[in-house]
Amino acid sequence: MFPRWSLRCLFAAFVLSVAAAVWGLGAEPPIALGSRLELLADDRLVGELRGCTRRLHEPRPANVALRFDAPWEGPFSGYVTVLHDGDLFRCYYRGNPVAGRDGSDTEVTCYAESRDGITFTKPALGLFEIHGMRSNNVVLAGQAPFSHNFAPFLDDRSGVPPAERFKALAGTSERGLFGFVSADGLRWRKVRETPLMTKGAFDSQNVAFWSAAENRYVLYFRTWTGGDFAGYRTISRSTSADFLEWSTPVEMTFGDTPREHLYTSQTHPYFRAPHLYVATPMRFVPGRRVLTADQARQLGVDPGYASDTAETVFMTSRGGNRYDRTFMEGFIRPGPDLGNWASRAGLSALGVVPTGPAEMSLYKQAHYAQPSGHLVRHTLRTDGFVSVNAPFAGGEMSTRPFAFSGRQLVVNFSTGAAGGLRAELQNEAGEPLPGFSLADAVEQVGDEIERVVTWKGGGDVSRWAGRTVRLRFVLKDADLYSLRFRPAGI
Questions:
Q1: pLDDT tens profile 439-489
Q2: Same-domain pairing of 359 and 472
Q3: Does the CA dihedral 101-104-106-111 come out positive or negative?
Q4: pLDDT digits (tens, 9 = 90+) for 59-104
Q5: What is the residue range of 426's domain?
Q6: 3-class DSSP state for residue 122?
Q7: Residue 255 — left, alpha, or beta (φ > 0 → left; ψ -120 to 50 → alpha)?
Q8: Which of 56, 87, 285, 340 is most exposed by smallest CB count within 10 Å?
Q9: C-alpha angle 25-30-36 in degrees, rounded to nearest 5
Q10: Could you tell me if 36 and 184 lie in one domain?
Q11: Model pTM score
């Protein structure tokens, strides 16, 4: 007669064996893909790579989007946020013509807007008198320290009151982090006269958003690894159901990567796949000087800002306290412009926004601590942060097991003239499904954001919807950026 603990062990083993049989290879549970878009910016969907690599793509500078040239703006303008609100792009940033302590009364919150996201104009709002003038673009003034790092977001939570459609966070370690709300994004009020959070350094741009994937507000904010402004600048996270009461902060992790100063986080949901958070923080390298004394003087760099370097890097997260830092390389390098080798000249704006059918834009400050300070727009193809790339010799990618809903497989891809992409739909064991094998696949050649993948029998894959399947892609001189299963009727 078996003792009870032995029977329990046998039963547990039986359950695990059944689960392994159901889930297929490696007892890996299928991803509930549904019909959502999946980027290949992290390894969530990517299984095995053979002859392929995941490639980080570099945003290209396009144009000067905005100059910080008003008397109340100047060399120390910073912490930019760009929001896409219907047919309007809204830009918020700190204006500050002189260096000083965080939260000084010389700081104001400025606003600019655009209809195309390419160039921004500064409306004369008349809300505050600044430098003896009411004809200015200031939306917050005289409320130090909040203009130091005022960071708005558009609250797309279902049922949010119209008077609170815009929200923002701002504050310092001395005062704590305060919440603000607005109906029009221009006239702001505090949600209460006490801070929403006090456990943090907050000496940077502290960013929040409503996460539909997590069904809560999520906040990413500045902390230090050693506490009390010691160690490395890093990022912590907190969540809230109502924007008022926040969970105990948890420090973010970055996998098996070396510690670095991450000055900002710029974490937000990607607009085409909001379950994936993209982050474009500034990597700060204190004491790493590039500019000579003569160069700094000729550029007009403030003497206290010539001895460090910085650049934008790329990370992702899917919630929780983990960032994926697969790519340690610079995302937006300082480049050949010497003005961008000054301290803190790598500050990227919060926000990646669509500016064309096949284009998205992100923004980075240039010439920080210099009279010529401005904001540069950079562009990438839509979904184009990272691709699975195959050389001319060819390669393959197999996905992890997943279950989908929809009728057609749609890919965002690019090939060379002699390149191509073919797809094979497999069962959970990695065996080709009848009619959808590699031999049945129609080779896809070209460069499109949305191309329907087809086989000899057509592109309707709906018969396999809801089942556990895999995809195998065979590529040659090609990049694959994202995929989804499109529902019927779209």
A1: 999 999 999 999 999 999 999 999 999 999 999 999 999 999 999 999 876
A2: no
A3: positive
A4: 999 999 999 999 999 999 999 999 999 999 999 999 999 998 899 9
A5: 24-55+386-486
A6: coil
A7: left
A8: 87
A9: 140
A10: no
A11: 0.93
